[in-house]
Design a protein that fits this description.
29% helix, alpha+beta, three-stranded antiparallel beta sheet, single chain, 6 helices, 178 residues
């Protein structure tokens, strides 16, 4: 009986100290605010040769390089709450996070997605971001230069991007906020 009580108590304490949040609607697990308060990274590390080729228009294929000290590599190297399979979320996944409104897990700020976008008519020099702001945490989808330092909120779990289509509420948010 004491063993069972100890096990239940330890599970409760672990849940209170968890640095993650699992969305019951999508099954995705996210870093919570405690884990992300100070992490800001660029999408692309400007010290790499491929970043220089991208930004000076020499080689647009190099614009998808996420090596170096970037948001993507931060997520790939992350070990949190016993998991090491973290990744940078797609723009649709970031929107799903907002849609399900886990208010105590949302922090004001601008967060990277793994989704590239055109910027100034160049193919992949920018990426989509979500800016959460206000007491109701309204989200706005924006595009930012890949060399900008922004917040990183990593996610783990099966990608929901393949299951989305235009009638999905997440897609409606994307269309409204563009």
């Amino acid at each position: 009986m004491k063993g069972l009580l100890f096990l239940i108590l330890s599970i409760i304490l672990q849940a209170e100290n968890a640095k993650t949040y699992t969305d019951k609607n999508t099954g995705l697990t996210w870093q919570n605010n405690e884990a992300i308060k100070i992490i800001q990274k660029p999408w692309m590390d400007m010290t790499t040769d491929s970043a220089k080729k991208c930004f000076y228009g020499i080689d647009q294929d190099s614009c998808s390089d996420t090596s170096g000290d970037t948001a993507s590599t931060y997520c790939q190297k992350l070990q949190l709450d016993g998991f090491d399979d973290w990744r940078l979320p797609s723009i649709m996944e970031l929107n799903s996070f907002l849609l399900n409104k886990p208010d105590k897990h949302i922090q004001e700020g601008t967060f990277w997605s793994a989704t590239s976008d055109k910027y100034k008519n160049k193919p992949r020099e920018a990426a989509h971001v979500i800016m959460y702001r206000g007491k109701d945490f309204q989200g706005t989808m924006l595009t930012r230069d890949k060399n900008t330092k922004l917040y990183v909120r990593c996610v783990r779990g099966k990608s929901i991007a393949g299951s989305l289509h235009e009638k999905n509420p997440i897609w409606e948010i994307i269309n409204i906020t563009q």
